[in-house]
Amino acid sequence: MDRRQLLDLYFIDARSRLIDIAAFLDRLDRAGGDDDFRAEAFRRALDELDQPGPDRARRVLLAFSDPTPGPIAKAPGKSACGAYPPGPTS
Amino acid sequence: MRYIEPHAHMVSRVTDDYLAMVMAGCVAVCEPAFWAGFDRSSARGFYDYFCQLTDYEPRRAARYQLPHFCWLCINPKEAEDIALAREVLAMIPEFLTRENVLGIGEIGLNKNTRNEMQILEEHVRLAAGHDQLILVHTPHLEDKLKGTRLILDVLRSDKRIRPDRVIIDHVEEHTVRMVLDAGFWAGITLYPESKCTPARAVDIFETAGPDRLWLNCACDWGQSDPLAVPKAALEMRRRGFSEAVIDKLLFENPLSFLSQSTKFKVR
After folding, report:
1. Considering CB atoms only, which of A57, A72, A82 is closest to B111?
2. Which of B38, B56, B101, B206 has the fewest CB atoms within 10 Å, measured from its CB?
3. pTM
4. Is the CB of A64 less than 8 angstroms away from the CB of B142?
5. What CATH number is given to the structural domain containing B9?
6. Which domain covers residue B38, as residue numbers?
7. In this structure, are A27 and A39 located in the same domain?
8. What phi, psi does B197 have (nearest 5°)?
């Protein structure tokens, strides 16, 4: 498919998702209290969207990923929260 | 169209889902052992679960002419309790001869802990010792990248393990290449929010190539879609892929991997 065909297929959906992200950031701005590491990771990931290159999805996933190499001593719980909290856990 | 659903937790689904899958073209379904959403209190709970996977569930699927297969293990979410995990591991061999058991899975990591690693290594030894296929779960979200690396290390450290007999599931854009480059099969899971959309799955297929790759829905007790695979086929048609290419990804590829078990047969 060429770019025009891909735009025909996906533009409206991507536009809708982009507005959802903008509204989410507005919602955060309106709320009181402090950000945490998830908001910081989100903004780092957003920066990747502006970078050139063919692998933005991979780089966004990396921005949310635990960069440490080894296993941790004990599970803090069963669930993942979507972003890597700062601080030594290995 | 025809397709194989290689990863679905049907014990958590209603019978209507079997009917819908068959009507959409499903010709076989495979069910890895997984976490029930709560921790089982003893190994007997797993014994009953393995009986459900090898006896009751195939009969429920057979009412819709759908062959049902399964994989056995203790899920990494329950592997923090090493003593319980070893009790469960000890009972798995008696089930391996049952006619719908394809191998050991879905083993792997959840939060990438030392205990999870220990039990993963013991599962891998069990599979190697009984010449079983392996299905691996990779962790969710921020834990996936590190967990996939650790899993590859464990698998490569046992020289009896042949990568072409191992499928590493739930790959995404940041992990698919390392799995395929190491010679393993890779599974892309179509699941809301925490895994891939059909559009991203087709992107990965376009960039990673057609070989050693399959799609699955991993439907379970969470919000998930037992028809996600045929919906991905629709996505491929919208992008202009031929029926032959769709058939390779959704039928021929899983058939090729799963047929390494002589027990696997499609309708």
Report:
1. A72
2. B38
3. 0.97
4. yes
5. 3.20.20.140
6. 3-258
7. no
8. -85, 165
